């Protein structure tokens, strides 16, 4: 497996910045409407790390797919991610006032706008994937995104999370791993394998990478909730501990949670061996995910 010769690996920070700029420009082009609904949708997409969109573009590069052909998929996953955050922040869910250091959509507008912006971000994601530019494997991307984000994926993870709040006993490590695999892991796996799907290539190495990365991401998120600085994280921290929620940190302890994240990062990097040096940026991304402060 080798990336096209004109697409050299770049340091992660530069590649992430580049992905953010490309996805933002594509958003401005494809989501240019001037009404308040479009404004709220753009607001919800803007200001995040765009890690999932970056994974789409990077996996596309590894499979020799041009960025222009992968941009609809990169924006689509950022739309699904943004919708999940807008709805998660609502008073009926996690009830948060701040996201990425800015007022959440229901605070800046109102609850009705947050529901509608989330709804239309979700449907817009599938409209993007149905664009003829996406190519002959579009239907597989549409099918897998519906599955990853829906009743057996992210929404199911959120449901398990809500159910855990009123459960008689705290969740076990196995239950938390299942919950997080659905809530966070499914979208990360879709993103990291999207390039292989677009190229009609072998998904197995990227799938293995993404499964380890997704779990490492969530452990890092739990560590941030304990050790993070709210100003840097851009939202309230220590919410899990205050709510008495079982997390990787509460079940494993801080030191073991950090060791587990480190070992998952190593597993993620090892899974990329078929790509050789071409995968250096994705390996750096895995190290970033466990060391991030936001
Ligand atoms: C409401 C249907 C529905 C689903 C919500 C993903 C999710 C399910 C809720 C998000 C709540 C949360 C804090 C999840 C933990 C992991 C996570 C997705 C963190 C945020 O992702 P980042 O760090 O965010 O990639 P940015 O701001 O960089 O985009």
Notes on the protein architecture:
It is globular, with a radius of gyration of 18 Å. The chain has 15 helices and 2 strands. With 294 residues, the protein is mainly alpha-helical. A hairpin with a 2-residue loop joins strand 1 (98-99) and strand 2 (102-103). Residues 1-8 have low confidence and may be disordered. Helix 8 (154-165) packs antiparallel against helix 9 (173-199). The chain has helices at residues 12-30, 36-45, 51-62, 67-88, 105-108, 111-129, 138-149, 154-165, 173-199, 204-227, 230-233, 239-242, 248-252, 254-271, 280-291, and strands at residues 98-99, 102-103. It has a single domain, classed as Orthogonal Bundle (Farnesyl Diphosphate Synthase), CATH 1.10.600. The two termini are 33 Å apart. Bound molecules: geranylgeranyl diphosphate. Residues 48-49, 51, 81, 84-85, 87-88, 93, 100, 154-155, 158, 183-184, 221 line the site of geranylgeranyl diphosphate (GRG).
Q: Which strands sit side by side, in order, in the main sheet?
A: 1-2
How much of the polypeptide forms β-strand, as a percent range?
under 5%
CATH topology: Farnesyl Diphosphate Synthase
Distance between the termini: 33 Å
Instruction: Outline the low-pLDDT stretches.
Output: 1-8
- The number of domains: 1
Task: Count the beta strands.
Answer: 2
Name the shape in a single word. Answer: globular
Ligand identities: geranylgeranyl diphosphate
**Mean pLDDT over all positions:** 92
Second-tier CATH architecture: Orthogonal Bundle
Integer-rounded radius of gyration: 18 Å
- Number of helix segments? 15
The helix fraction, in percent, is 55-70%
Order of helices and strands: HHHHEEHHHHHHHHHHH
Overall SS class: mainly alpha
Which superfamily, in CATH terms, is the homologous superfamily?
A: Farnesyl Diphosphate Synthase
């Amino acid at each position: 497996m080798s990336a096209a010769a004109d697409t050299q690996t770049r340091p992660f920070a530069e590649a992430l910045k580049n992905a953010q700029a490309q996805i933002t420009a594509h958003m401005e082009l494809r989501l240019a409407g001037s009404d308040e609904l479009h404004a709220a949708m753009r607001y919800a997409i803007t200001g995040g790390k765009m890690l999932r969109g970056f994974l789409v573009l990077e996996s596309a590069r590894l499979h020799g797919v041009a960025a222009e052909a992968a941009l609809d998929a990169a924006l689509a996953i950022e739309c699904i991610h943004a919708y999940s955050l807008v709805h998660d922040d609502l008073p009926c869910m996690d009830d948060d006032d701040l996201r990425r250091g800015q007022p959440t959509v229901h605070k800046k507008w109102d609850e009705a706008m947050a529901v509608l912006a989330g709804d239309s971000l979700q449907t817009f994601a599938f409209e993007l994937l149905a664009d003829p530019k996406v190519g002959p494997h579009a239907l597989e991307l549409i099918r897998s995104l519906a599955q990853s984000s829906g009743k057996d994926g992210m929404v199911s993870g959120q449901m398990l999370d809500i159910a855990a709040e009123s459960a008689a006993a705290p969740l076990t490590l196995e239950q938390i791993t299942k919950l997080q695999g659905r809530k966070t892991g499914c979208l990360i796996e879709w993103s990291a394998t999207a390039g292989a799907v677009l190229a009609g290539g072998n998904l197995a190495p990227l799938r293995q990478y993404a499964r380890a990365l997704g779990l490492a991401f969530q452990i890092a998120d739990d560590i941030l909730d304990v050790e993070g600085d709210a100003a840097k994280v851009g939202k309230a921290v220590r919410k899990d501990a205050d709510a008495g929620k079982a997390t990787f940190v509460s079940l494993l302890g801080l030191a073991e949670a950090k060791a587990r994240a480190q070992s998952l990062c190593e597993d993620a990097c090892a899974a990329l061996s078929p790509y050789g040096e071409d995968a250096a940026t994705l390996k750096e991304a895995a190290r970033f995910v466990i060391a991030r402060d936001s």
